[in-house]
Design a protein that fits this description.
Protein name: tRNA-uridine aminocarboxypropyltransferase 1
Main location: nucleus
Largest sheet: 5 strands, parallel
Number of helices: 8
Keywords: Nucleus, S-adenosyl-L-methionine, Transferase, tRNA processing
Enzyme class: transferase
Shape: globular
GO biological process, one term: tRNA modification
Helix content: 10-25%
Order of helices and strands: EEEEEHEEHEHEEHHEHEHEH
Strand content: 5-15%
Number of strands: 13
Number of domains: 2
Oligomer: single chain
Strand order of the largest sheet: 6-5-10-7-11
Length: 321
């Protein structure tokens, strides 16, 4: 998709250019609100309590099939209408479920569950696939003595990614044998997420840390760096990393050009990049935008915000990197 509005002020790159996001201009034509068929509440595009589209959108939205299950643990103080977690549940209803803390499942009896959260023992996605990648923790991630990554992460991932060997395992992956069957995300502010992580049901999960990517979220969160992603961005990033490590990256796909993902990701994905047809979007083929439609609502709102506000004036985009 292309940017519908010419940028004002300092030139900038449109982050979603060349991504395989369905035309979302229909959202700009919808007038008024519609009642949710489940709870009868008045909503614009979808019900953020029941996670279903309303009105004519029920037959127009792109549905996304994911290779694994996604659970989102939402803090009870997180405002439903402002959270991007609902985007995932609406666009991938068969693979995403949302729980409000403290009413969460017991994951102790389920295999293959990981928590996407930085901790002192976090693995990277390549490590889940047994690739020879390690985190350099010789300087305690650059943190003061007495602190650890789970409570005070401030270093960028491209500063702590270690060396890797190009030789990869020859295992053939399918949707049924990925090293992760369910990924759990925490939908809250950074300070709230640490409280949820303290819960023994959550803390017992194996943790995974993502490669850094600059957030395009327009809402400012005090004290958070620019790479603190919105929930839907984090889900997209995790699925992207999982897919590339399982099935590779289509050399023809240009959707990552402006996403501002750390150089470490590109270094790790380089040996997994393969030549494939430019129009190939099969589920278990090299990544070619299979999960880009998770950003369908997010990209539309980004465009709307930038129609009324100059990008360089928004505090969210001036946070430290």
């Amino acid at each position: 998709m292309t940017h519908p509005v010419a940028a004002k002020g300092k030139p900038r790159k449109y982050p979603f250019v060349n991504m395989r996001i369905a035309d979302n201009s229909v959202l700009d034509t919808i007038e008024g609100r519609h009642n949710c068929r489940h709870c009868n509440r008045s909503r614009k595009f979808f019900c953020y309590n029941c996670y279903v589209p309303v009105g004519e959108l029920a037959n127009l939205l792109p549905m996304v099939q994911l290779p694994l299950q996604i659970d989102i643990i939402k803090h009870k103080k997180e405002i439903d209408g402002k959270s991007t977690a609902a985007h995932a549940a609406v666009l991938a209803p068969h693979n995403v479920r949302i729980h409000t803390y403290p009413d969460i499942p017991d994951y102790s009896q389920e295999d293959g569950v990981v928590l996407i959260f930085p901790s002192a023992t976090s693995l990277t996605v390549p490590q889940l696939f047994a690739r020879d990648v390690h985190l350099n923790i010789d300087d305690n991630y650059g943190l003061p003595k007495g602190h650890h990554m789970g409570t005070m992460l401030r270093r960028r991932m491209d500063e702590i990614v270690g060396e890797m060997e190009l030789e990869q395992t020859s295992k053939c992956y399918t949707f049924g044998n990925l090293p992760v069957r369910r990924a759990v995300f925490i939908d809250s502010t950074w300070n709230q997420s640490r409280g949820i992580y303290a819960d023994h049901r959550v803390r017992a999960l194996r943790t995974v840390v993502l490669q850094n990517r600059l957030s395009q979220f327009w809402r400012h969160q005090r004290g958070s760096p620019r790479w603190y992603l919105a929930t839907i961005e984090a889900i997209h990033q995790f699925l992207l990393e999982m897919h590339v490590n399982a099935w590779g990256l289509n050399a023809s796909y240009r959707g990552l050009d402006n996403l501002e993902i750390t150089e470490g990701f590109h270094q790790l994905s380089a040996p997994l990049t393969v030549a494939a047809p430019a129009d190939c979007e099969q589920l278990e083929s090299p990544y070619n935008g299979q999960y880009d439609n998770l950003l369908y609502f997010f990209a539309n709102m980004y465009d709307l915000i930038h129609k009324y506000y100059d990008h360089n004036d928004l505090i969210s985009y001036r946070r430290p990197i």
